[in-house]
């Protein structure tokens, strides 16, 4: 076991983590822990753009952006946070430009901008060009740029260090504070204890809870799961976004930028069906509306293909020059994975699990909340694993890359300033006890269950019962399935007993987090008896502001930590969930009917 000491510890090296590291690294001694190499982080898969009201191509302003974000989130957005994000968006884009990000340019040399779903001018009258982009690989360029700047500022990276626990201690004032984290080094199997004054979680989402997803295999909700197992809440877990245009049957993402450039969704009759669902902005409606519309087309028999289970994305009218210059990766994906050339034929698409609107609750400075109001001293979160609630019940496209830069920056500054104001607090007597117990238990287990079988069953029930549309019956089925799978998880066996690069062990730990988060998602969805944003109930089709204009807060009810029958390191795994609620911050726009 090895020990390290830093001022600020950042867990995760995607866009949010590295944006935080750039700020904290200039103010305090900072280390970044990441279970994969930084430039392989999932931010690199983001394609279409990062929005800001630059007005480079047409008139725009941050107030319109704020309104679009709030309306796009079906009014569950915390409006003070949305206003901060929209205001700071302009500087966030210009910061990246100064760091060297190669944005596409207008003929005048300004950052070019294009349309994106849900982004409008004059509070919804027409689409607006707000998305700043680098072809269709904007996230990749952001990731490379941030990593280069982290190196420039001397940020220390611990690559392939998988954080499995966060340490909490009581200071001399009797306050519970965060004092560091414990990580498993994949290359050696050694456990490392990192003492720190502040810790920032930026570990991304948990899309691998679904079978059909745009998310990489690494997105297993580790940071959310760690915080949740500490008895801290997770916010709005029922809201998961299904991106409308995944390659049919595969889930590989086809960016909304395709529709921003003029792509059209068509059903089996060749009809541009979004004209019926969103007559003003059509194919550029927010993602939840487009995904539901596509699902309805299929359910009502207007799907395409031999099984009538997808629709078509038509870009043949855009021309080869536009596709090859502005959308080269997407064009290649279609050719490679479906054998379809979008220059001459439409592309089969269907919704794919894409983004978690919920996560670790924070305030606008990234401080993690232990309840509706009180923050946890020294603990921060940013990016998809966090929920400052600028996305509400449905995130607008390009607001994710904006979120990681605005709130990653804020969390990095706040964590460094906190570290400067405090001395180190002594860590628990045995800081690695839980992680050591978890690793030893999994490595020595001899049960008859296989991790792959449980993971497959989990993903299948979530796809079937908690996807674009849900009902009381399907959600109860999903909850029953997940709880049964959690019992089976207690009987798994890890067949690789070795220490170095033990992927069997890694996948077993990841599965544990996925099961916890799936249960939280389904439990919260059952309790929300309305349809709002990404949470669409067939049995409660209307939005209900009277009873559900509120955030859900899921707490894991932990059993006695000294329970002799609980597997060491997995204590609390089968705990019950307590559901509470938090009011939505409404400062500017009252909820209205959501029409596009």
């Amino acid at each position: 076991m090895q020990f390290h000491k830093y001022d600020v510890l950042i867990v995760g090296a995607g866009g949010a983590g590295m944006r935080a590291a750039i700020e904290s690294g200039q103010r305090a001694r900072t280390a970044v822990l990441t279970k994969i190499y930084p430039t392989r982080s999932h931010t690199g898969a983001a394609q279409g753009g990062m929005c800001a009201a630059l007005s480079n191509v047409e008139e725009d302003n941050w107030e319109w952006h704020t309104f679009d974000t709030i309306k796009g989130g079906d009014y569950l957005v915390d409006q003070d946070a949305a206003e901060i994000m929209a205001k700071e968006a302009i500087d966030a884009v210009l910061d990246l430009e100064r760091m060297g990000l190669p944005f596409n340019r207008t003929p005048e040399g300004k950052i070019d901008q294009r349309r994106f779903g849900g982004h409008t001018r004059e509070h919804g009258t027409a689409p607006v060009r707000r998305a700043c982009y680098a072809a269709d690989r904007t996230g990749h360029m952001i990731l490379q740029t941030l990593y280069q700047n982290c190196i420039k500022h001397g940020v220390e990276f611990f690559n392939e260090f998988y954080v499995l626990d966060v340490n909490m201690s009581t200071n001399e004032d009797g306050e519970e504070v965060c004092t560091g984290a414990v990580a498993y080094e994949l290359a050696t199997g050694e456990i490392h204890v990192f003492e720190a004054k502040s810790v920032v979680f930026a570990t991304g989402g948990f899309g691998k809870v679904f079978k059909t997803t745009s998310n990489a295999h690494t997105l297993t909700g580790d940071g959310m799961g760690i915080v949740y197992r500490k008895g801290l809440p997770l916010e709005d877990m029922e809201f998961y976004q299904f991106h409308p245009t995944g390659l049919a049957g595969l889930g590989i993402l086809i960016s909304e930028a395709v529709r921003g450039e003029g792509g059209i969704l068509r059903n089996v009759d060749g009809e541009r069906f979004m004209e019926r669902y969103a007559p003003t902005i059509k194919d550029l409606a927010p993602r939840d509306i487009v995904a539901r519309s596509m699902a309805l087309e299929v359910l009502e028999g207007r799907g395409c293909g031999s099984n009538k289970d997808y629709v078509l994305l038509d870009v043949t009218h855009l021309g080869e020059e536009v596709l090859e210059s502005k959308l080269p990766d997407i064009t290649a994906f279609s050719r490679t994975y479906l054998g379809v050339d979008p220059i001459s034929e439409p592309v089969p698409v269907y919704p794919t699990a894409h983004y978690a609107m919920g996560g670790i609750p924070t305030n606008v400075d990234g401080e993690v909340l232990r309840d509706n109001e009180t923050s946890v001293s020294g603990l921060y979160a940013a990016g998809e694993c966090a929920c400052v609630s600028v996305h509400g019940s449905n995130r607008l496209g390009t607001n994710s890359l904006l979120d990681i830069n605005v709130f990653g920056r804020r969390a990095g500054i706040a964590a460094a300033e906190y570290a400067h104001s405090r001395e180190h607090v002594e860590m628990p007597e045995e800081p690695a006890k839980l992680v050591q117990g978890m690793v030893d238990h999994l490595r020595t287990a001899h049960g008859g269950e296989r991790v792959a079988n449980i993971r497959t069953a989990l993903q299948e029930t979530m796809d079937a019962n908690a996807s674009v549309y849900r009902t009381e019956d399907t959600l109860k089925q999903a909850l029953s399935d997940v709880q049964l799978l959690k019992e089976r998880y207690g009987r798994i066996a890890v067949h690789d007993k070795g220490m170095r690069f033990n992927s069997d062990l890694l996948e077993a730990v990841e599965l544990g987090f996925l099961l916890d988060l799936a249960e939280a998602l389904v439990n919260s969805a059952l309790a929300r008896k309305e349809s709002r944003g990404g949470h669409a109930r067939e049995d409660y089709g209307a939005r209900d502001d009277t009873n559900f204009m509120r955030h859900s807060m899921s707490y894991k009810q932990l059993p006695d930590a000294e329970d002799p029958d609980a597997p060491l390191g997995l204590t609390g795994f089968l705990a019950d969930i307590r559901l509470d609620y938090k009011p939505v911050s409404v400062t500017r726009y009252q909820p209205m009917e959501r029409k596009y």
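The mean pLDDT is 94. Residues 365 and 414 are 6 Å apart (CA to CA).
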